[in-house]
Design goal:
Mean pLDDT: 96
Distance between the termini: 67 Å
Structural class: alpha/beta
Number of domains: 3
Radius of gyration: 23 Å
Bound molecules: S-adenosyl-L-homocysteine
Largest sheet: 7 strands, mixed
CATH architecture of the largest domain: 3-Layer(aba) Sandwich
Number of helices: 11
Strand content: 25-35%
Oligomer: single chain
Number of strands: 20
CATH topology of the largest domain: Rossmann fold
Low-confidence stretches: none
Length: about 400
Amino acid sequence: MKTEVVLKVKSTFVKKYKAGYPLIQKQSINNLHELKKEGVLVKLVDDHGSFIGKGYYGKQNKGYGWVLTQNENEKIDPSFFEKKLKTALNKRKAFFNDQETTAFRIFNAEGDGVGGLTIDYFDGYYLINWYSEGIYQFKEYVLDSLEKLVDYKGVYQKKRFNTDGQYIEEDDFVAGERGQFPLIVKENKVKFAVYLNEGAMVGFFLDQREVRKTIRDHYAEGKTVLNTFSYTGAFSIFAALGNAAKTTSVDLANRSLAKTIEQFSVNGIDYEAQDIIVEDVFRYFKYAVKKKLSFDMVILDPPSFARSKKYTFSASKDYKQLLKEAISITNEQGVIVASTNCATFDMQKFKGFIDAAFKESNLQYNILEEYSLPDDFRTMKQFKEGNYLKVAFIKVRSRR
Ligand code: SAH
C-alpha cells in the first residue's frame, strides 16, 4: 500500500477543510516539502495533530491533490474507488436510459468524490481523463472498478499532466476493443462525430448540452446566427437543425473548417448553405462592422484565455469588450448567448460585465435565461470553482 504523508494544515485554513473543502492548496499547508512522490496518500491534520481528512498528492494547475474522505476509518483502497464509481453511475441512470443522448459524463471529479478524475461515456466507450500523475497511480483501481460495474465496448484515456497540465500525446487506447472513428454519438437526437484517439480533444464539449438544445428548440427558427469561437461548430449545427435562416461559424484554428463541415454533413445539412470562416474573431468583428453585417443571434463561447497573433484574450479582463463588439453587430431585439468557462469569477461578476457592456453601448437589455453545468457534471457546494460554466441568453432592447 502507498505510504501516508501527514500534512499540517495552517490554522487559518483548518475551518475550511473541516467544512469539506476538497482541494489541497499550496498556501494552506505548512510542510508541503515533505511530499515527494505523486500518488502517495496524505493525511491532513490540524495544529494539535487531530485528523481532518485523507486524500492523495497529485500536482495539477489547481493545486497539490485532493481530499477524498473526512472519515478517519475509511480506507483509500480498490473498494473505495468502486464505491465512488458505483454511486456515480447510479446517479446517471436517466442518462443511460435516454435513447436520444448517447454522450454524457459519468464521473465528474470532486463532484463525484475524487478530484482530478473525470470519465465520459460515448456510446459504449468510456474516456478517462487523468489530471495528475498522482491520480494516474490509481489507474488499476479505476479500471478494475469500471470492468466490474459496466459493460464497456472499450476504454480510452487522456493523460493531462504534462508540464502546464498539457495533454501527453500517445496512443490513448486502454482496454476492451478499439473503436472505429469517427464514432457517431447522439445528443438530443443530433449526431456528433467524435474521435477518442486523436489528441487532447474529442470534438465536442458535453457541458453545453442544455444550451445547444435551447438554441435549437427555442431561439434559432428563422434567425441569422453568428457562432464565434465555433470549434467544430456544435452550436451552429443545433441552430441549423432548429431552422435558422443561416449560420456563420468563426474560428481561428485551421482544423475547424473540416471538422465543422463533417458535423454538418453527418446531420445531413448542406454545409455550403452555411458560412464557415477560419479567422480571428476580433478581426471578423471589425470586418462585420465595416461591411455593415448584423445578426439576430450572436453566440460567444471563448476560451478563458487565448493568444492569437495579434490579440490576447483573457475572459476575466476582456469579456466586457468582447460583448461590446458583439452588441455592435447584433440586431435590435436580437439575442446574444454569452458563455464562459472561466472559473475565476462567478455569475454575479459575469452579469456585471454584461451590464457594463450594455451601459457603455448605450443600449437596454434583459437576461432571458441562465445556465450552469448540467446534471451529469456534478459539483460540490464546498468547491464553488468546480461550478465553472456560466451562460446567459441576453435580449438586446432598444436604444436608451
Ligand atoms: N464554442 C465551442 C467551443 C470553443 S473552444 C463549442 O461549443 O464547441 C475555443 C475555440 O476558440 C477553439 O476552437 C479555438 O481555436 C478558438 N479561438 C481561440 N482564440 C480565438 C480567436 N481569437 N479567434 C477565433 N477563434 C479563437
